[in-house]
């Protein structure tokens, strides 16, 4: 038993394979990108890394897989160059970079990594060079030579004019009193600097970018005998104010300051955490209509949603953006953050005017345009940015605009602009009532709708919800885009105008002269009561022309056989409601007769049993009616009636009904009694009459 216990770990290790026993800790995003750059450069020899250089600049990036194929950084073209990976150097006459850099102290390493200006300024102080050359373990985030050169002249003058205080303090702020490698640099962490124990903010992004107070690591992990050097692209400075304090002292945030105070978000913005504030300037607030601004400022919930839509859940430095990426706000919406050259973009717009204002609890970017979330908008405002502006304009013309701009909880079923390509209806009482039936009495979300649900409209109608495999429909109209949920109202974008049901299937058929022969047939077959009561039917209704197109003898015999007539009519009735928007490529719909109907849709044309439908989606309270131009026959059950002999002359396709060479005519008379109605169908020889 003891032997078995000892062998179990070995057996388990063998079963899992070498990957399980030899795998080390997961690599950081920076290390993964460096590994990919090394992979792309290996054809040039050992320890060669592929580097993307932005054309026209000195900016270089180790390349990840996506950037390698796109050859772009922030939309700008790059060229690939090959250089020694960090920590290695060339050897004359040998391929690649086979030799590891010799270890020296921190001071000497600054010169090796290309930070000779930092080395020079270190020399000017009395105390720092001995520390960098002496014993100990330090980390230096060393600005590149270009970083020092890009400092404003007045800032640089103030440093070099007082080297043993200002310059020394600035350099010490770039130092940490221990060795910190990139695998320890975690997103959102703070390192204690050697200047008054002030914090240095570290952010390590999924794309491999690492920032130190929003300065990007250019080359990392250069080992020295007494520490490690990381080369960065900016000179960093101490951070003392939180986000709220910066808002308080900047004149350009006067309106934002008042809005934050009114919303109560000042507690969040002065507390702990790491946020990004996309801070709207006074100019941004001035760009929106005064009516909209006053409405939002006077509505605490809308105001809070507005401000939360400008706050990202983590700190996002500008240098981390090398391509488009989706970020989530505190409000819950998603913003597309990207870049175009040196400009940052929000949702494709270059609206950031000042970037990377660092705070103790995050970073601020100034923006010149408000990011108003849907949750703070009226239905009018939602529609202005959607493809339903024509429908909303109809509401305005009809005097119904208050339903779309007030605090009434409603859902607007707004047809796409393309629905009105042939023109809009005249505004009259009927149109106004139709528009009211496009407004549901409550604020809905489509994800909570269910099949068979009924919705009450402001026009007094009850609308039904139909859920199909690939569509969600309300009566004949189906949802064509994602919901837009506003402050009080929700916008459903619909693929057509709604036609609320106006009566039962029998009411619909009786009210349309095209179906007079079908109505008589239904009454003769005894199906009137069924089509008048509650139910869920899809009726493919043959028009008068469809009956008249049947061979005369066949129709004559059919109308004289009530049982067979009922059977044929039931084949035209599906046992569920199927509107055209729910059909898809092919649906096999079970009929009341028992056989299945094949219903398909292509290029907006509906077919049943491969026969085109003349008109779709005539809605009834207990079903939906499709007008068809032929009488459908059940599969394998074509009508078989004894036919009277016909002469060749009488078999013309243009003839009416013939029997024994004589013309017959179907006379359909509807006898309406005082209570109800009875239909009788008589086939008579005209000579007799």
From TrEMBL:
<dbReference type="InterPro" id="IPR000782">
    <property type="entry name" value="FAS1_domain"/>
</dbReference>
<dbReference type="InterPro" id="IPR050904">
    <property type="entry name" value="Adhesion/Biosynth-related"/>
</dbReference>
<keyword id="KW-0732">Signal</keyword>
<feature type="domain" description="FAS1">
    <location>
        <begin position="103"/>
        <end position="236"/>
    </location>
</feature>
<dbReference type="InterPro" id="IPR016666">
    <property type="entry name" value="TGFBI/POSTN"/>
</dbReference>
<keyword id="KW-0272">Extracellular matrix</keyword>
<keyword id="KW-0301">Gamma-carboxyglutamic acid</keyword>
<feature type="domain" description="FAS1">
    <location>
        <begin position="502"/>
        <end position="632"/>
    </location>
</feature>
<feature type="domain" description="EMI">
    <location>
        <begin position="45"/>
        <end position="99"/>
    </location>
</feature>
<dbReference type="InterPro" id="IPR036378">
    <property type="entry name" value="FAS1_dom_sf"/>
</dbReference>
<keyword id="KW-1015">Disulfide bond</keyword>
<keyword id="KW-0677">Repeat</keyword>
<dbReference type="Pfam" id="PF02469">
    <property type="entry name" value="Fasciclin"/>
</dbReference>
<feature type="domain" description="FAS1">
    <location>
        <begin position="375"/>
        <end position="498"/>
    </location>
</feature>
<comment type="subunit">
    <text>Binds to type I, II, and IV collagens.</text>
</comment>
<dbReference type="InterPro" id="IPR011489">
    <property type="entry name" value="EMI_domain"/>
</dbReference>
<keyword id="KW-0597">Phosphoprotein</keyword>
<protein>
    <recommendedName>
        <fullName>Transforming growth factor-beta-induced protein ig-h3</fullName>
    </recommendedName>
</protein>
<keyword id="KW-0964">Secreted</keyword>
<comment type="function">
    <text>Plays a role in cell adhesion. May play a role in cell-collagen interactions.</text>
</comment>
<feature type="signal peptide">
    <location>
        <begin position="1"/>
        <end position="23"/>
    </location>
</feature>
<keyword id="KW-0130">Cell adhesion</keyword>
<feature type="domain" description="FAS1">
    <location>
        <begin position="240"/>
        <end position="371"/>
    </location>
</feature>
């Amino acid at each position: 038993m003891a032997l078995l216990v000892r062998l179990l770990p070995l057996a388990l290790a063998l079963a899992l394979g070498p990957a399980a026993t030899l795998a080390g800790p997961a690599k950081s995003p920076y290390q993964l990108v460096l590994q990919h750059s090394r992979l792309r450069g290996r054809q040039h020899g050992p320890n060669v890394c592929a580097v993307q250089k932005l054309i026209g600049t000195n900016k270089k990036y180790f390349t990840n897989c996506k950037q390698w194929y796109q050859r772009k950084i922030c939309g700008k073209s790059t060229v690939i160059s090959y250089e020694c990976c960090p920590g290695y150097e060339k050897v004359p006459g040998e391929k690649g970079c086979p030799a590891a850099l010799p270890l020296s102290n921190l001071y000497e390493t600054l010169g090796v990594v290309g930070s000779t200006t930092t080395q020079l300024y270190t020399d000017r102080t009395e105390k720092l060079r001995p520390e960098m050359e002496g014993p100990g373990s330090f980390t230096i985030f060393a600005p590149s030579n270009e970083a020092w050169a890009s400092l404003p002249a007045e800032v640089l003058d103030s440093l070099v004019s007082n080297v043993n205080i200002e310059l020394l303090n600035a350099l010490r702020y770039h130092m940490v009193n221990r060795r910190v490698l990139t695998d320890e640099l975690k997103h959102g962490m703070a390192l204690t600097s050697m200047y008054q124990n002030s914090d240095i903010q570290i952010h390590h992004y999924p794309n491999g970018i690492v920032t130190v107070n929003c300065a990007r690591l250019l080359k990392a992990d250069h080992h020295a005998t007494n520490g490690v050097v990381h080369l960065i692209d900016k000179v960093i400075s101490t951070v003392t104010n939180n986000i709220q304090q910066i808002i308080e002292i900047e004149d350009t945030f006067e309106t934002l300051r008042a809005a934050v105070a009114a919303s109560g978000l000042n507690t969040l913005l002065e507390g702990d955490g790491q946020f990004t504030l996309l801070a709207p300037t006074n100019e941004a607030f001035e760009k929106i209509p005064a009516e909209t601004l006053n409405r939002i400022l006077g509505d605490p919930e809308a105001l809070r949603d507005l401000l939360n839509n400008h706050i990202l859940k983590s700190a996002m430095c500008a240098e981390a953006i090398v391509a488009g990426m989706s970020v989530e706000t505190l409000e819950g919406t998603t913003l597309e953050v990207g870049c175009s050259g040196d400009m940052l973009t929000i949702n494709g717009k270059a609206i950031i005017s000042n970037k990377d204002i660092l705070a103790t609890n995050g970073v601020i970017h100034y923006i010149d345009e408000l990011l108003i979330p849907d949750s703070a908008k009226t239905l009018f405002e939602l529609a202005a940015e959607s493809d339903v502006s024509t429908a909303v304009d109809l509401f305005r013309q009809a005097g119904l605009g208050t339903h779309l701009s007030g605090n009434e909880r409603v859902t607007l079923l707004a047809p796409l602009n393309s629905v009105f390509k042939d023109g809009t209806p005249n505004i009259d009482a009927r149109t106004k009532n139709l528009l009211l039936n496009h407004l549901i009495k409550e604020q809905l979300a489509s994800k909570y709708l269910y099949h068979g649900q009924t919705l009450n409209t402001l026009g007094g109608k009850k609308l039904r919800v139909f859920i199909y495999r690939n569509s969600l429909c309300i009566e004949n109209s189906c949802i064509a885009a994602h919901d837009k949920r506003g402050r009080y109202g929700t916008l459903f974008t619909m693929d057509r105008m709604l036609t609320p049901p106006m009566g039962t299937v029998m009411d619909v058929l009786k009210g349309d002269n095209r179906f007079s022969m079908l109505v008589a047939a239904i009454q003769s077959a005894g199906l009137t009561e069924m089509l008048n009561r509650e139910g869920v039917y899809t009726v493919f209704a043959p028009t008068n022309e469809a009956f008249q197109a049947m061979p005369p003898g066949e129709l004559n015999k059919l109308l004289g056989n009530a049982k067979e007539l009922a059977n044929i009519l039931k084949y035209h009735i599906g046992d569920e409601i199927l509107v055209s928007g729910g059909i898809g490529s092919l649906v096999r719909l079970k009929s009341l007769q028992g056989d299945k109907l094949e219903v398909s849709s292509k290029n907006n044309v509906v077919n049943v049993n491969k026969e085109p439908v003349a008109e779709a989606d005539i809605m009834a309270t207990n079903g939906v009616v499709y007008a068809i131009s032929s009488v459908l026959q059940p599969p394998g059950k074509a009508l078989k009636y004894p036919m009277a002999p016909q002469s060749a002359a009488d078999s013309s396709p243009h003839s009416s009904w013939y029997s024994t060479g004589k013309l017959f005519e179907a006379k359909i008379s509807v006898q309406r009694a005082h209570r109800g109605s009875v239909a009788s169908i008589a086939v008579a020889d005209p000579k007799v009459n």
